């Protein structure tokens, strides 16, 4: 559903024509297999808006989504504004979404806000965002607009003390595979895709204009000092526990997937053996018949007798592997931080005694 | 065709003490109304009488979120050629004690010496769109950049009183007069002799800033661009963040130490409240028997190391799996 919406807007809005202009160089670079976007530059305003959107509308495990607006400058993607998307509550969401998006962008154009679609953002729950839906949406976005990215905002990690915002794109290799829509094991092997090469992370920088800097100074003068320093809190086992739980679930899924694949392999090899045996018997019989002077039996179509089993879709296991990888990365980061904090606490205690 | 709305005699209301009774501009029952030059914009209707403001709903405090101010500054930077200021609508919620402004959007408008025209259709449309995302937000008032309240502000304020009961007017001084970007909020009150022409005066309100926790963290990060030469910062990695936070605490501690030394050397007179805070600060570090602490520390470290080991193991497992499958 999401994919269809974005295809529609990609062709309808003038953004597709604009990408051919400044991104001509992008396409040139894209041809060499290199990624067209080396850096993502975000305005402070966008960060605040994303935070606010999640805070107000996204409690619980629902993801909140929205559209990013901006422009492409050489190999940098500048994101200058964004607007949120309503949640999927009604059933006529399809019509609503496209309409909503068109209206929004038209209105924003009136007030001189960049109305070029350059990507979308999504919040995530403990880092679980590597899903089929995300892949599809990002593919249709990247297909329509070469430089688009998906921003993943992790509110729980942010609440722990530091902003967690990451920009991802699909690698060119994965784009190729998705275009073919062929997810069989052979195609993936040909494309040489491993789970590490599915998404590439693009470094983010935050940039503010001078006037916004002035505003920041004003705010700093006027607002009270934060009295909570979450980042240095030692009570973190809850968070770690949840992360591990999700990881375990994924590993379970993965093992099921592996079992399925193994069964498939076993079935295929058994079938091969059976085919072989059948052929041999045929040949023997034919030789016997020949020796007795009878006409040989006709060759039968082996493929009809032995239908090859369906190969399982490899995409899901790739996704699961990618997700497990992300979880592991998050966990390692988290434990590194906690170790640091524990050592600091130890130093404080030693000094005290 | 365009008639001036107001007898432009009195100076705009100074935001200073409410007793300074300079009327902003007499306007309300003025029979003449300006016509909008462009057909796409709704012309001002003459009001039968002033919108009677009830008691201000929610005390006299306005709580702003930083995202609003950033949005206002951004739309100011993108204003059309020749426009001196931008205006827009404020959205948010009202509760018993205060009014909380959580969202805003800018509205195109044309302003010249004699007339002002605001695209109210646009404003309505945008509000509908915004309502789809956040159904709880109401129109609370409007904002304008610029230093003063002008006569046109009064008119625009009237437009908005049709949308919201007792709208708030927010000014953000982007022209940086007095070297500061002053942010002020007003509500309009009637003044004048009852029974005769009533005037409208803007009375100031207290502005406070409200932050969600995550917003505070976001603002802290964004604020760092003030210190970098080309106003660009990257997002830092895990240990860097811990380092940064501890550096901040270190700074805070050195300020406190400096104060303590000043008091000891007699430069600053001692203050008991601060003394009590210092006492509780020092006592925050829990006194634990060293052996117990050692055990706690070790078990925690062991947990973390085990988790790291398992995570690494999992990663190598899936890498292996990948290789095997692709054989």
Automatic annotation (TrEMBL), chain A:
Q: Where is the composition biased (Low complexity)?
A: 9-22, 271-290
Q: Name one GO molecular function term.
A: translation initiation factor activity
The entry's cellular-component GO terms read:
eukaryotic 43S preinitiation complex; eukaryotic 48S preinitiation complex; eukaryotic translation initiation factor 3 complex
Keyword annotations of the record: Cytoplasm, Initiation factor, Phosphoprotein, Protein biosynthesis
Residues where Phosphoserine is found: 184
Q: Subcellular location, in the record's words?
A: Cytoplasm
Task: State the residue spans of region: Disordered.
Answer: 1-35, 266-311
Q: Name one GO biological process term.
A: formation of cytoplasmic translation initiation complex
* Any Pfam family: JAB
Ranges for the MPN domain? 40-174
InterPro entries tied to this protein: eIF3h (IPR027524), eIF3h_C (IPR045810), JAMM/MPN+_dom (IPR000555), JAMM_MPN+_peptidase_M67A (IPR050242), MPN (IPR037518)
Q: Where is the composition biased (Gly residues)?
A: 23-33
Q: Which family does it belong to?
A: Belongs to the eIF-3 subunit H family.
- Quaternary state and interactors: Component of the eukaryotic translation initiation factor 3 (eIF-3) complex, which is composed of 13 subunits: EIF3A, EIF3B, EIF3C, EIF3D, EIF3E, EIF3F, EIF3G, EIF3H, EIF3I, EIF3J, EIF3K, EIF3L and EIF3M. The eIF-3 complex appears to include 3 stable modules: module A is composed of EIF3A, EIF3B, EIF3G and EIF3I; module B is composed of EIF3F, EIF3H, and EIF3M; and module C is composed of EIF3C, EIF3D, EIF3E, EIF3K and EIF3L. EIF3C of module C binds EIF3B of module A and EIF3H of module B, thereby linking the three modules. EIF3J is a labile subunit that binds to the eIF-3 complex via EIF3B.
According to its UniProt entry, the function of this protein is described as:
Component of the eukaryotic translation initiation factor 3 (eIF-3) complex, which is required for several steps in the initiation of protein synthesis. The eIF-3 complex associates with the 40S ribosome and facilitates the recruitment of eIF-1, eIF-1A, eIF-2:GTP:methionyl-tRNAi and eIF-5 to form the 43S pre-initiation complex (43S PIC). The eIF-3 complex stimulates mRNA recruitment to the 43S PIC and scanning of the mRNA for AUG recognition.
What's the name of the protein?
Eukaryotic translation initiation factor 3 subunit H
From TrEMBL, chain B:
What GO biological process terms does the UniProt entry carry, in alphabetical order? Answer: formation of cytoplasmic translation initiation complex
> Which residue stretches belong to region Disordered?
1-54
Q: State what protein this is by name.
A: Eukaryotic translation initiation factor 3 subunit F
Q: How does the annotation summarize its subunit structure?
A: Component of the eukaryotic translation initiation factor 3 (eIF-3) complex, which is composed of 13 subunits: EIF3A, EIF3B, EIF3C, EIF3D, EIF3E, EIF3F, EIF3G, EIF3H, EIF3I, EIF3J, EIF3K, EIF3L and EIF3M. The eIF-3 complex appears to include 3 stable modules: module A is composed of EIF3A, EIF3B, EIF3G and EIF3I; module B is composed of EIF3F, EIF3H, and EIF3M; and module C is composed of EIF3C, EIF3D, EIF3E, EIF3K and EIF3L. EIF3C of module C binds EIF3B of module A and EIF3H of module B, thereby linking the three modules. EIF3J is a labile subunit that binds to the eIF-3 complex via EIF3B.
The segment(s) forming the MPN domain are 62-192
Report the residues modified as Phosphoserine: 228
Protein task: Deubiquitinates activated NOTCH1, promoting its nuclear import, thereby acting as a positive regulator of Notch signaling.
Extent of Low complexity compositional bias: 16-30, 38-49
| Predominant subcellular localization, coarse grouping | cytoplasm
* Pfam family for this entry, one: JAB
Q: According to its record, what are the GO cellular component terms?
A: eukaryotic 43S preinitiation complex; eukaryotic 48S preinitiation complex; eukaryotic translation initiation factor 3 complex
The UniProt keywords, alphabetically, are: Cytoplasm, Initiation factor, Phosphoprotein, Protein biosynthesis
Q: How is it modified after translation?
A: Phosphorylated. Phosphorylation is enhanced upon serum stimulation.
Protein location: Cytoplasm
Question: GO MF annotations for this entry?
Answer: deubiquitinase activity; metallopeptidase activity; translation initiation factor activity; translation initiation factor binding
Family membership? Belongs to the eIF-3 subunit F family.
InterPro entries given in the database record: eIF3f, EIF3F/CSN6-like_C, JAMM/MPN+_dom, MPN
Instruction: Tell me the organism.
Output: Equus caballus (Horse)
């Amino acid at each position: 559903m999401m994919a269809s919406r974005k295809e529609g807007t990609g062709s309808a809005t003038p953004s597709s024509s604009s990408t051919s202009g400044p991104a001509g160089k992008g396409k040139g670079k894209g041809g060499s297999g290199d990624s067209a976007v080396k850096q993502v530059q975000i305005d402070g305003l966008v960060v605040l808006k994303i935070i606010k959107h999640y805070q107000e509308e996204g409690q619980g495990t629902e993801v909140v989504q929205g559209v990013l607006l901006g422009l492409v400058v050489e190999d940098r993607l500048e994101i200058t504004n964004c607007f949120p998307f309503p949640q999927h509550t009604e059933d006529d969401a399809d019509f609503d979404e496209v309409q909503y998006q068109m209206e929004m962008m038209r209105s924003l154009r009136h007030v001189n806000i960049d109305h070029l679609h350059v990507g979308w953002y999504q919040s995530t729950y403990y880092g679980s965002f590597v899903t089929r839906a995300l892949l599809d949406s990002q593919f249709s976005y990247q297909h329509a607009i070469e430089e688009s990215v998906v921003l993943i905002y992790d509110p729980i990690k942010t609440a722990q003390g530091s902003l967690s915002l990451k920009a991802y794109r699909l690698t060119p290799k994965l784009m190729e595979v998705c275009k073919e829509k062929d997810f069989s094991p052979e195609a993936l092997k040909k494309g040489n895709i491993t789970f590490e090469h599915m998404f590439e992370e693009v470094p983010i920088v935050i940039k503010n204009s001078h006037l916004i800097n002035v505003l920041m100074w004003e705010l700093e003068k006027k607002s009270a000092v934060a009295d909570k320093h979450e980042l240095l809190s030692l009570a973190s086992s809850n968070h770690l526990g949840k992360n591990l739980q999700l990881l375990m679930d994924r590993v379970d899924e993965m093992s099921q997937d592996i079992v399925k694949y193994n069964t498939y392999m076993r079935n295929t090899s058994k079938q091969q053996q059976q085919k072989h045996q059948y052929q041999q018997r045929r040949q023997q019989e034919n030789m016997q018949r020949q020796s007795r002077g009878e006409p040989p039996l006709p060759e039968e179509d082996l493929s009809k007798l032995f239908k090859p089993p369906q190969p399982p879709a490899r995409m899901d296991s790739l996704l699961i592997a990618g997700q497990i990888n992300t979880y592991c990365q998050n966990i390692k980061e988290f434990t590194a931080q906690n170790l640091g904090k524990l050592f600091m606490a130890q130093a404080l205690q030693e000094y005290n005694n | 065709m365009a008639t001036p709305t107001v007898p432009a005699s009195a100076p705009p209301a100074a935001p200073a003490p409410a007793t300074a009774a300079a009327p902003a501009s007499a306007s309300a029952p003025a029979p003449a109304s300006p016509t909008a030059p462009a057909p796409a914009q709704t012309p001002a209707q003459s009001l039968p009488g002033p919108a009677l403001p009830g008691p201000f709903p929610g005390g006299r405090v306005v709580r702003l979120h930083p995202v609003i101010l950033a949005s206002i500054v951004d739309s100011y930077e993108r204003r059309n050629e020749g426009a001196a200021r931008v205006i827009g609508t404020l959205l948010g919620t009202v509760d018993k004690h205060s009014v909380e402004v959580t969202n805003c959007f800018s509205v195109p408008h044309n302003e010249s010496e004699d007339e002002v025209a605001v695209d109210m259709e646009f404003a309505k449309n945008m509000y509908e769109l915004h309502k789809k995302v956040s159904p709880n937000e109401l129109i609370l008032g409007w904002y304008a950049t610029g230093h003063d309240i002008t006569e046109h502000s009064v008119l625009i304020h009237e437009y908005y009183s049709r949308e919201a009961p007792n709208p708030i007017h927010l000014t953000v001084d982007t022209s940086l007069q007095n070297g500061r970007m002053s942010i002020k909020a007003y509500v309009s009150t009637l003044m004048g002799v009852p029974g005769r022409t009533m005037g409208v005066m803007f009375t100031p309100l207290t502005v406070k800033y409200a932050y969600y926790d995550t917003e505070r963290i976001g603002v802290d990060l964004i604020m760092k661009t003030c210190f970098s030469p080309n106003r660009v910062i990257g997002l830092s990695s895990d240990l860097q963040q811990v380092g940064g936070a501890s550096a901040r605490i270190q700074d805070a501690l050195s300020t406190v130490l400096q104060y303590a030394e000043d008091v000891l050397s007699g430069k600053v007179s001692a203050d008991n409240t601060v003394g009590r805070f210092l006492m509780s600060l020092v006592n925050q570090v829990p006194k634990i028997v060293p052996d117990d602490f050692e055990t706690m520390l070790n078990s925690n470290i062991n947990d973390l190391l085990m988790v790291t080991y398992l995570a690494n193991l999992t990663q190598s497992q899936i890498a292996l799996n990948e290789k095997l499958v692709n054989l």
